[in-house]
């Protein structure tokens, strides 16, 4: 009996032990035409055992690469595609240049820091004021989402002054005017005030549902009291 511990290493487990034995047998065939014909038959069998590869673009190219990989890149057959090498398989990808800059205020994120830098260097006063109001509104929205409570406008004003070293001053209740935030502003479409309105509307809906639940409970208790009064009257008449 043959045990797995006595067998060689299974290179590609998705094809199984039998396919690997077939590929190993291809290396023992001396006739080139017969080896090529049997290699084509093994390719067709590999495609039948893995039908999900048919949905992959150029799946036959992948099958040929796999059969060379299973043979240890020693199979001597003609391939309609470039024959891969073991150096190409084991080649390491280039190292990605990860950013080394970390945001100074992580609770607001890096995007807001980029918008603040853009607003600080903005020369148009109207655009600068619009940027400032959008930044302040987003800071209020972020604070409400994280802390689940409202924040005073003076706190946002003081924090924005501290972040920008007094270069941007937030005016509570002041409209941003015609200046619009860019498309990559945190919050989606660039309209932070719209996000605040959506958040406030969700709070209104939540409060309405809570009040409705309370009223239903109070109505249920009232009806329960009427039922108890009716039962007491019924028991009193029954005792007579």
TrEMBL record:
Residues 173-240 are annotated as: Disordered. Residues 187-197 have a biased composition (Gly residues). Residues 230-240 have a biased composition (Basic residues). Residues 173-183, 208-229 have a biased composition (Low complexity). This is DUF4290 domain-containing protein. It comes from Chitinophaga eiseniae.
């Amino acid at each position: 009996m043959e045990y797995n511990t006595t067998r060689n290493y299974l290179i590609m487990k998705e094809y199984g032990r039998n396919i690997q034995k077939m590929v190993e047998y291809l290396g023992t065939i001396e006739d080139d035409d017969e080896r090529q014909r049997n290699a084509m038959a093994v390719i067709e069998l590999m495609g039948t055992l893995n039908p999900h590869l048919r949905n992959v673009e150029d799946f036959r190219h992948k099958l040929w690469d796999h059969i060379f990989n299973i043979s240890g890149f020693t199979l001597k057959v003609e391939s309609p595609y470039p024959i891969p090498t073991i150096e190409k398989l084991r080649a390491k990808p280039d190292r990605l240049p990860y950013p080394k800059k970390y945001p100074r205020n992580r609770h607001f994120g890096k995007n807001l820091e980029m918008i603040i830098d853009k607003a600080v260097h903005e020369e148009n006063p109207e655009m600068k004021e619009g940027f400032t109001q959008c930044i302040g509104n987003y800071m209020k929205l972020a604070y409400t989402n994280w802390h689940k409570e409202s924040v005073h406008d003076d706190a946002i004003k003081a924090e924005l002054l501290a972040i920008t070293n007094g270069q941007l001053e937030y005016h509570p209740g002041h409209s941003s005017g015609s200046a619009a935030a860019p498309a990559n502003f945190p919050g989606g479409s660039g309209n932070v005030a719209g996000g605040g309105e959506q958040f406030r509307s969700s709070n209104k809906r939540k409060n309405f549902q809570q009040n409705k639940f309370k009223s239903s409970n109070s109505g249920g208790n009232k009806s329960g009291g009427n039922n108890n009064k009716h039962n007491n009257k019924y028991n009193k008449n029954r005792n007579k």
